């Protein structure tokens, strides 16, 4: 076999009475960096040399398109996650109010049982409205209950022996659209938007 008709991959040159491709400018000449022997031995030197060679060949980092794709994907994930998170917070506020109103119903029912079924005397002597401080405790005829942090519970007589209990949360809103109400005459409770 004649050795004049083969291509050398290492230095991009070939024979047959012509110069190598690196000599005519088709391929750039590889740069040689002296690598001093390190503490890790020849394996580390080889890895460093391979990394340097990749860098010289133009492998420098991410392209603009790749970075834009990553930013778009992060934006889509954020657009999905943020509303879900906000809805979960609202759901937690609503649940805490619903729980506090249900507990207040039990407190009032126990108090009316001990007051011979009279809600007016269970609330106070005049039958006035009882409002808990925000996140504080309240007492109905010796029976006490506690509102969760940020919640306000209001107990008011309705009719002869009926009552209504309303609950609000400071973070969710305290207007009528954000008030949970229980009515004893119907035994039903709910939000105005339901």
Describe the structure.
- By secondary structure, the chain is an alpha+beta fold.
- It has 2 domains: 3-56, no CATH class; 93-190, Pantoate--beta-alanine Ligase, Chain: A,domain 2.
- The protein contains 3 helices and 9 strands.
- A 5-stranded antiparallel beta sheet has the order 3-6-7-8-9.
- Residues 1-9 and 11-20 have low confidence and may be disordered.
What's a concise summary of this model?
With 194 residues, the protein is an alpha+beta fold.
In terms of topology, how is this protein built?
Layout: E1 7-8, E2 13-14, H1 42-56, H2 64-114, H3 119-123, E3 130-131, E4 137-140, E5 143-146, E6 151-158, E7 162-169, E8 180-183, E9 188-190
Antiparallel strand pairs: 1-2, 3-6, 4-5, 6-7, 7-8, 8-9
Cα separation of the termini: 91 Å
Structural class: alpha+beta
- Which word captures the global form? rod-shaped
Number of strands: 9
If helices are DSSP runs of H or I spanning 4 or more residues, what is the number of helices? 3
| Helix amount | 25-40%
What is the H/E string? EEHHHEEEEEEE
CATH architecture descriptor name of the largest domain = 2-Layer Sandwich
Average pLDDT reading:
77
Radius of gyration using CA atoms only: 40 Å
Uncertain segments of ≥5 residues (pLDDT<50)?
Answer: 1-9, 11-20
Q: In what order do the strands lie side by side in the largest sheet?
A: 3-6-7-8-9
**What percentage of the residues does DSSP assign to strands (E)?**
15-25%
């Amino acid at each position: 076999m004649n050795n004049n008709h083969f291509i050398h991959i290492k230095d991009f040159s070939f024979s047959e009475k012509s110069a190598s491709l690196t000599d005519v400018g088709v391929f750039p000449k590889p740069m040689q960096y002296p690598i001093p022997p390190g503490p890790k031995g020849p394996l580390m030197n080889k890895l460093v040399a391979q990394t340097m060679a990749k860098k010289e060949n133009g492998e420098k980092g991410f392209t603009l398109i790749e970075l834009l794709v990553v930013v778009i994907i992060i934006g889509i994930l954020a657009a999905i996650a943020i509303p879900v998170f906000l809805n979960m917070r609202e759901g937690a506020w609503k649940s805490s109010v619903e729980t506090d109103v249900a507990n207040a119903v039990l407190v009032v029912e126990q108090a009316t049982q001990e007051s011979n079924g009279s809600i007016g005397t269970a609330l106070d002597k005049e039958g006035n409205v009882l409002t808990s401080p925000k996140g504080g405790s309240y007492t109905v005829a010796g029976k006490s209950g506690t509102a969760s942090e940020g919640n306000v519970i209001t107990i008011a007589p309705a009719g002869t022996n009926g009552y209504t209990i309303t609950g609000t949360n400071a973070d969710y809103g305290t207007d009528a659209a954000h008030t949970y109400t229980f009515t004893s005459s119907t035994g039903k409770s709910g939000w105005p938007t339901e």
